[in-house]
Design goal:
Elements lengths: L8 H40 L1 H19 L5 H7 L8
Length: 88
């Protein structure tokens, strides 16, 4: 059937345009929402620095563990980390 004689062509094109418009609008909203969230999370991480605070909070614990368990001889430590498979 010729396109100019198709009685459903106008309805098809209108529905296609509507669907494309809705998908375009949804993508725009999703993009704006995602970029907004990235900015908010970045500002939160920059302002509150949770990793730095965690490092500062754990520093005394790590220091006390290093003082109570001093590093032993490196050759003995390297030998103790070797795993040997059992002989069958």
């Amino acid at each position: 059937m010729e396109p100019e004689n198709d009685p459903y062509r106008h309805a098809y094109l209108k529905a296609k345009a509507t669907t494309n418009g809705i998908m375009h609008a949804l993508f725009n909203w999703w993009l704006a929402f995602t970029l907004f969230n990235l900015v908010v999370v970045s500002l939160f991480l920059w302002a509150y620095d949770p990793i730095g605070r965690l490092n500062d909070a754990l520093a005394p614990v790590i220091q006390s563990q290093k003082q109570t368990h001093p590093a032993s001889d490196s050759s003995a430590e390297s030998q103790s980390n070797i795993y040997e498979a059992p002989n069958e």
